[in-house]
Amino acid sequence: MKKIAVLTSGGDSPGMNAAVRAVVRKAIYHDIEVYGVYQGYQGLINNNIKEMDRGSVGDKIQRGGTFLQSARCPEFKDPEVRKKGIQNLQQMGIEGLVVVGGDGSYRGAQRLNEEGIKTIGIPGTIDNDINGTDFTIGFDTALNTIIEVVDKIRDTASSHERTFIIEVMGRDAGDLALWSALAGGAETVLIPEHKKDVQEIADKIQQGIERGKKHSIIIVAEGVMSGDHCSEELKKYINVDTRVSVLGHMQRGGSPSGMDRVLASRFGAYAVNLLMAGESGYAVGIQNNKLTKTKFEDIFSSHHEIDEDMYRLTNELSI
Ligand code: ATP
Known about the structure:
Rossmann fold, binds adenosine-5'-triphosphate, four-stranded parallel β-sheet, PKF_sf, 6-phosphofructokinase activity, 11 helices
């Protein structure tokens, strides 16, 4: 393979730049021409494709977001629209494409692979909700961002003897909520994968108050309910002073953590290795600290699951 391209798609995540840098540098190291597609699949259709040199990815490894930019492009589901993107790549002699993104981006990559462009996916999302990998790029950074906030909120919560409800990202997956609850020492975590009775949460807070506890922290994933809704529900059962913090998009920003930079660099280089070996239709991942590849169809065949042992542990340690 002589020419490849790379794009970032879907929601951005810290570490995407490090992945693009690795793809570009690894390709150049092996004398492969490498192109950056700006604005995801939208840029592919619009022919927003530029050749990268080693300097194009200089001073990027530490930056959050994605310098290639990302875009939602629902029309990419239409085969006629994809044809335009494929033609743009083929006219430039580009045979392989690395797609950094989430589940939706993988679906686009799978279609491209079936339609003549060799593709490899790299998991880039803060949600950690992609099958075939223990971790996605951006999860560790987002987790650390949340923990920093939880620690700060804990200071003010105990000074005023308040119950704080912190709403974090996670529509379908509770990984960010669960990991931040365990790492932040929260009293309660609400995740989409497990139903929890509000009365039960209120009873727990009450028992804590009776034991002399100065504050309570509840972490709720946005997919369960909003922080405000959680507060209203709680007030039906217990008379406590509650405050709500919605972390929102700050969770997606920031300089990537060391773990995310290393993960992204390993993924990017591995993706190029696979394309050089003539392999395609795979997403790369990490399982038990070993790089792995999983066929796109196997990624879609089941739903991402929460770590049940960790859920149990979080509940056991927050008594
Ligand atoms: P995240 O969930 O972290 O935001 P994602 O990659 O799942 O990331 P989506 O918005 O679901 O984000 O998908 C990104 C893009 O992938 C879409 O805008 C669209 O261009 C393309 N895409 C999604 N689903 C398909 C599909 N079934 N066929 C072709 N392309 C698709």
